[in-house]
Amino acid sequence: GIGILISLEGSDPVGRPEDLEILHMLGVRSLTITWNYDNRYASSCRSQKDYGLTENGEDLVRIANELGIILDISHAGKKTALDVLSLSKLPVIASHSNYNAVHKSLRNADDEILEGIKRSGGVIGFTLITSTIGGKPSIDDLARHVIEVWRRYGSDILAIGTDYFGIERTPEGLEDASKLPKLLERLAELGMGDNDLRKMAWENVARVIRAHENRWGDRLQV
Q1: pLDDT tens digit string along 20-43?
Q2: Are residues 207 and 145 in the same domain?
Q3: Which candidate, 18, 28, 45, 129, has a CA 20 to 30 Å from the CA of 138?
């Protein structure tokens, strides 16, 4: 079967931290703290001053943890990301980002952030956003991001976060979801084993969801 986990990209519609309860009742199970601009809760990756979580933002993180809403630091400023990683008691994800050591981008995660994600038990979802990969990317260019993170941090942190619905261009050879096995095949050629690839494809994300779902309780799910 096909499972869908409802996510809110950017916490702008959340008037007060307590309003997360309403969104949770409506089925929201993941929250990206910011999109590409600052909001009342945190600074974004494009902030002129990366001030991190505000007081309201800290309350938002605590309530999200209580509700079992997965916190996503893609699009967040570095200080915001580190604040979330420091405060959250549950695994934190960067759902659609790449590795800043391979290609510098405001949207990519650096080593300090990746170390925090790993400590939290979370994942980074490698994305097909071409500006975060570099140049006019191919499968090999994206694979380089994955391989470098795998070598440094192991396979428990790996996931896939294509952002197909949010992009107009993709790396050559990855034009739609039916092509994703080509990425896994290339990663296998570069040394990743079956267990590593299985973790990246689905097991790690399933682990993160399981770490949150015991807090969902009997609230309405739609």
Answers
A1: 999 999 999 999 999 999 999 999
A2: yes
A3: 45
